[in-house]
Specification:
alpha/beta, Rossmann fold, 2 domains, binds S-adenosylmethionine
Length: 342
């Protein structure tokens, strides 16, 4: 007689230092207690999206609200159990067009599970029309072009953040030295990370709601103590793609996995090295201002330049470099066209 297996090992897949469990994150017993330094996730939003596995098993994304919130609370409790005392939890959730209060209810479940709420970060998905969002406002409201990233921690006294690790250059270089010696300042609590692909495009690939890699990438980089990251709602694997790019050990749980899509996402993340998709309004502002002093040709501006203009031109070069556009003076018009500013 064969005895039933009491604690069957869930199936999993390993890609480099990333481990993906194909089971429910309501039970994280495959992870050691007090092991995870950082949790980055975006749970199902309970809006009727279609999440399905390779074998066409489907998640019910329209649960009754009470059931939905208690499901999330169970997951957040498990996350707390496996988190180190220094652990940080970035919880991404957007409000829906018709329910502007759901994100507040979701973050409350995390607080009820034992996490301490520190700050709300606003993630802007589209800037001045660049970057995708689903049109939903019609003639009743404006579209939602931002979502929350709630910053929560296990122990208020123990956690550490390093905002400058995801810092941005000063627009006014004379500020260098005032608050530190480097040309880096805290990016603030509004993050501009646009979607490169439309929702239609990602649906075609098989998943309705991935976040751009810039989101988990920023979160991981900002945590200096991060040695291990967990995403309890892995989806396509974006969090582990960022972990892979940053050489951090990652763990993900996905109950409805599309294994090839996860593998492809994680491996593709390897090439992601700088958040070139993060475009801050002051960059656009500097570029627009600088356009006024730059000729329409591909050549660099002609001397003699005033001191102020030289400084502005330097800011433009820095800005374009930060955006991943190299040698701007070789093809300035082309670069600006790519930025859709001309
Ligand atoms: C909003 S999506 C996450 C998208 C992800 N951030 C990405 O970039 O691809 C939420 C995911 O949670 C998964 N999910 C739902 N219930 C789950 C459970 N009990 N355990 C693990 N994953 C679950 C869904 O299948 C869906 O892929």
């Amino acid at each position: 007689m064969t005895l039933p297996e009491l604690n069957p090992q869930p199936s999993f897949m390993k890609i480099a230092e990333q481990t993906i469990y194909f089971s429910s994150s309501e039970n994280l017993e495959t992870i050691q207690e007090e092991f995870i330094d950082l949790i980055v996730t975006s749970p199902p939003y309970n809006r009727g999206k279609r999440y399905h596995s390779d074998s066409n098993q489907e998640y019910d994304d329209k649960k009754n609200e009470k059931e939905y919130l208690s499901f999330l609370k169970r997951v957040w409790k498990e996350c707390l159990r496996v988190a180190t005392d220094e652990a940080i939890f970035f919880l991404n959730i957007g409000d829906s067009a018709v329910d502007q209060g759901i994100s507040e209810k979701v973050v409350t479940t995390a607080v009820e599970a034992g996490w301490t709420r520190i700050q709300d970060i606003i993630w802007v998905k589209s800037i001045y029309g660049k970057g995708h969002y689903t049109p939903s406002g019609r003639n009743k409201r404006f579209n939602n072009v931002w979502e929350h990233i709630f910053l929560l921690v296990k122990n208020k006294k123990r956690y550490q953040l390093n905002p400058k690790a995801i810092g941005i250059p000063y627009a006014d270089k004379s500020n260098i030295g005032r608050y530190g010696e480097t040309d880096l300042r805290d990016p603030g609590n509004v993050w501009h990370i646009w979607y490169e692909k439309t929702t239609g495009n990602t649906i075609k690939k098989g998943h309705e709601a991935p976040f751009p890699i810039g989101v988990p990438y920023q979160c991981i980089k900002a945590v200096p103590t991060c040695r291990s990251v967990l995403d309890p709602f892995l989806g396509t694997g974006t969090t582990l793609a960022a972990a892979n790019a940053l050489n951090i050990k990652g763990f993900g749980y996905e109950l409805y996995p599309q294994k090839d899509l996860i593998k492809e996402t994680i491996l593709k993340g390897q090439d992601y090295s700088s958040p070139s998709t993060i475009l801050l309004p002051h960059y656009i502002q500097s570029i627009k201002t600088l356009l006024n002093i730059i000729s329409d040709t591909d050549t660099a501006i002609a001397p003699p330049l005033t001191k102020k203009k030289t400084l502005q031109y330097q800011i433009l070069l820095d800005t374009l470099e930060k955006l991943g556009l190299n040698s701007p003076s070789n093809s300035l018009t082309e670069d600006l066209k790519r930025l859709q500013l001309k």
